[in-house]
Amino acid sequence: MVAVVALALAGCAPPEKESSSTQSEGGVDARTATSAEDFGGMDALVEAAKAEGELNVIALPPDWANYGEIISTFSDKYGIKVNSAQPDANSQDEINAANQQKGRSTAPDVFDLGQAIALANTQMFAPYKVATFDDIPEQFKDPDGTWVNDYGGYMSIGYDSSKVPDVTAVADLLKPEFAGKVALNGDPTTASAAANGVLMASLANGGSADDLAPGVDFFRQLKQAGNFLPVDPTPATIESGQTPVVIDWDYLNAAETAKLPSWKVFVPNDALVGGYYFQAINKDGPHPAAARLWQEFLYSDEGQNLYLEGGARPVRADTMAEAGTIDKTAFDALPPVDGTPVIPTDEQTTKNAEFLGANWAAAIG
């Protein structure tokens, strides 16, 4: 089996009128289209998207899974302006923006969400099946295409080896050498990366996907030891030395190795956590045809290989490897991983979100 394995605001201004009708030239209502065939084929979908002329995305940092290049490539390929809002926002911010900007031309057209937030808001998504839908394993998609996993990776510890000793276990982070140096990517009650970081700590301390208590307790100890750094890490904080140790997805940590030669990435095989992000269309977005074309692009060989160039593991990687369409150089450059990953189920993710909501603030407050 291929190395990719089964892994997870605007104010109160009055609504603006949408800049264009959702009806394509062929009389198709783009909002209700569930495949390119509903437009009359891919060429007709492209034409309808170009007529809209714009696409609104949100919470897509340029350095996250290669989204900077993905956005520019899509824009250049189809001549569609991509408006990228709040690049450093989290998954809950995406949902908040969609609710607050509903009916406005600035509302997000598409979402890229962590598992817990995605599953709690499926009523906001428009079902759509891309041309490559059948290539995507069943466990990584809703049967109607209401949501589809797009890319994933493994939880890791990135660190500046010029500032701290080599990390060989999660427990190393409690050592005095890591005082004031360990950052977690986000708030685990709203950010998937952070929640999975807590799960990784839980696994390393005898917990499981059904028991996050040991993970929360680990971060309590980290805070008590003075090692927890309450700073949301970014490429800038890493490269400036402000956050010398970062718990985050391996593809985000690995991206820093090209910019900071002393940056290393450790994936704990005894606490291996895998996960995919969820891609969905905002059913009330202002550019429904462009949103659907964006999905087609992301799940095409070209889009999936662009994720791979960013160190993320695309959901269609196995099928593309078998077909010989995967970027083998980028694929072979992925951080080595050994072991069977723990991948929380939808039910476990929902339960864990509730647990974190009730216990996280007290642990690190």
UniProtKB/TrEMBL annotation:
<dbReference type="GO" id="GO:0030976">
    <property type="term" value="F:thiamine pyrophosphate binding"/>
</dbReference>
<feature type="compositionally biased region" description="Polar residues">
    <location>
        <begin position="85"/>
        <end position="104"/>
    </location>
</feature>
<feature type="region of interest" description="Disordered">
    <location>
        <begin position="85"/>
        <end position="106"/>
    </location>
</feature>
<dbReference type="GO" id="GO:0030975">
    <property type="term" value="F:thiamine binding"/>
</dbReference>
<dbReference type="Pfam" id="PF13343">
    <property type="entry name" value="SBP_bac_6"/>
</dbReference>
<dbReference type="GO" id="GO:0030288">
    <property type="term" value="C:outer membrane-bounded periplasmic space"/>
</dbReference>
<protein>
    <submittedName>
        <fullName>Extracellular solute-binding protein</fullName>
    </submittedName>
</protein>
<dbReference type="GO" id="GO:0015888">
    <property type="term" value="P:thiamine transport"/>
</dbReference>
<keyword id="KW-0732">Signal</keyword>
